[in-house]
Specification:
The structure holds two protein chains of two kinds. Chain A is α/β, with parallel strands linked by helices. Chain A has helices at 17-31, 46-52, 73-87, 98-110, 223-233, 241-245, 276-279, 311-327, and strands at residues 2-6, 9-10, 13-14, 35-42, 59-64, 91-95, 115-125, 128-135, 140-146, 152-156, 175-177, 190-196, 209-213, 236-239, 266-270, 287-292, 305-308. In chain A, helix 3 crosses helix 4 (98-110). Classes of the chains: A alpha/beta, B alpha/beta.
Chain lengths: 328, 255
Amino acid sequence: MNILLITEQRDGQWNKTSFETLAAAQQIAAETKSRLTAIVVGKGVASLAAELAATKLDEVLLVEHDLLSSYTPDGYTLALQQAIAQAKPGLVLLPHTYQVRDFAPKLAASLGKGMIGDCVGYRNDGGKLVFVRQMFQGKTVADVVFEGATPWFATFQAGAFRADLVAQGASKAPVTQIAVDLKPEQIRTKPLELFREAKQAVDLTQAQILVAVGRGIKAPENIPLAEKLAKLLGGELAASRPICDEGWLPMDRQIGSSGQTVAPKLYLALGISGAIQHVVGMKGSRTIVAINKDQNAPIFEVADYGIVGDLFEIVPALTEELGKHNTT
Amino acid sequence: MKIVVCIKQVPAKDAPLAITGDSWIRETDIGFEMNEPDSYALEEALRLKEKHTGEVIALSMGPERVKQTIKEALAKGADRGVHIADDKAHTLDPLGAAKSLAAAIDREKPDLVLTGLQSEDQGFGQTGVLLAERLGLPHATIIMQIEAKDGHLRLKRELEAGWFQWVELQLPAVLTIQSGINKVRYATLKGIMAAKKKEIATVARESLGIAHEPTQRIERIYVPSKTKKTEFLTGTPKEAAAKLVEKLKHDARVL
């Protein structure tokens, strides 16, 4: 089988999850005795292709075009259709980034193929590849297999594989340029400037202790309960996405795939169910404590310590207990 | 502006999930609700209609029960509903589901198609993008702001790590809406009364004439095995809190 890894860069900077998926691709290639090719798409990105060629793979494909200098779903889909026609992969792997979510389903569908997205892992069942992904907000996991003719498309979630496990090659892999035909009128969206909102007020990545609240906090007037605990611990207040969507805390307090990724020494999750979008942003924390009324909440899968119960009873008790601890 | 909003009905957030057979959950005894990301898409559609005039059509696929979610959309202000009836809709792969939805949308010839970012049940997160491909329309995803003028859209896309980007495109188009783009309204009593007179057209999915070979199959679903051993602290809230402080101080040594 031929495996094709589609990497991601923006303005010549790697999206680092590309290397996590490279680690997965190297592992699958070794197990299935496949040929591994990686592709770099953009404009003026030959140095990235050269960098990639030092890792353990068989070939690097470089696709450059003026119309690929900024990402557009049409540009990427058209360019990658042509690259896939030449490379003839059986399996196409991508990191599950926002950009990939924007074009990969379209790319697969344009070839009449399907994509298994947001996988957390895979199994090789005697030569049959089984992809593992979460459903029901992480409450269940599904084993999914491809049906029908290749190429098959799959994406791996950030954190599913470790970028530091990428193997380096014994020698440099060849870099092959692929010419693609793109016309301006084929690109129907016009990408404009990238920007950040007002400078982030808090850098949660620097905090040693985080107290994070989720839906279980129920109302904005209950936030001070968590705030008091955070203050007592000398930590910062954080939140899952729904809390920021509601405007109960500012967006810069958000942990997860659309917010900040943190790894403090202590992470206290109050009333957070543990949807995967949140967990990817905090699972690297050294010690995780979860307080939740639902003993089956997925947050307990990553927690070191758990208390099942009403946070409105437990948090005040904890605050009181810590107050004692601080004065003794 | 004629807008179709795709709305999925999913198990309620606090519904206890029991796996039946190998690949689905037991649907009896649990509540269902509007997929939350889709409620933001519906709200955005209603706001666009209020600003630019037009029509909002709520589209949902699934068994009879999904009509309740369509009614909720009508009560909030959608003008009419389309129900693609299929008791086995949950067995469709993302492309099969999108082909069916696209066939129903194509009959409406809308200016704009909106979906939420992803569903809270299967969470494929592909439907909006696949609809664009099937309908031959441009798309943009993870949208946090929409400015419409003379058939032209200026859109704020959310990227990762706090970055955003403005993109522009021409209608007709498909957008997937990021949660938190707006503040979702509640249905008023007046809206609920008015919804009783609004039309819900039901189309059987098989009547749409979709030819589709599944591209993937869910072999089984199961409760994930723990990667970490969680130590549960029990007792009264006071006892559990005291145990936790002890653990954090002496075992984890993080205090």
